[in-house]
């Protein structure tokens, strides 16, 4: 795979992540008006996973969409969460990065890792 293709895919991945984040936050805020906030969050989060799978499979990496891939895709989110939780702890407790800033640093660090995991996963399912 060429460096140009990888860079193009990474840009599309980041744009899709931005769209997904904005959409899920908007959905959460809308749903929590009529539902308990935990239910609203769960529905918005699940919708975000569905959108992420569809967007990354069809737009970013152009891989076939399948039920097997769809039901296994949340493993990428699990891996991302576990890595993010460890990094957040290290940044706050060891490197003394303020709690309000550390999540932003975590996002910057984990985007490339999540990109690689997503690409690997979607090409295997």
UniProtKB/TrEMBL annotation:
It comes from the Bacteria. Pfam families: GtrA_DPMS_TM. It is a multi-pass membrane protein. Its main location: membrane. Keywords: Membrane, Transmembrane, Transmembrane helix. The chain crosses the membrane at residues 12-31, 37-57, 69-92, 104-122. Coiled coil: none annotated. InterPro entries: GtrA_CellWall_Glycosyl (IPR051401), GtrA_DPMS_TM (IPR007267). Residues 12-121 form the GtrA/DPMS transmembrane domain. It is found in: Membrane. Belongs to the GtrA family. This is GtrA family protein. It comes from Pseudomonas glycinae.
């Amino acid at each position: 795979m060429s460096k140009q293709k990888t860079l193009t895919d990474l840009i599309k991945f980041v744009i899709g992540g931005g769209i997904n984040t904005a959409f899920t936050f908007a959905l959460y805020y809308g749903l929590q008006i009529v539902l308990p906030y935990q239910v609203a969050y769960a529905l918005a989060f699940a919708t975000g996973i569905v959108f992420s799978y569809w967007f990354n499979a069809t737009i970013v990496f152009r891989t076939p969409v399948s039920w097997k891939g769809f039901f296994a895709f949340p493993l990428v989110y699990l891996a991302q969460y576990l890595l993010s939780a460890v990094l957040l702890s290290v940044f706050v407790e060891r490197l003394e990065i303020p709690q309000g800033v550390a999540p932003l640093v975590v996002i910057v660090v984990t985007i490339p890792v999540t990109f690689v995991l997503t690409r690997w996963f979607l090409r295997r399912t």
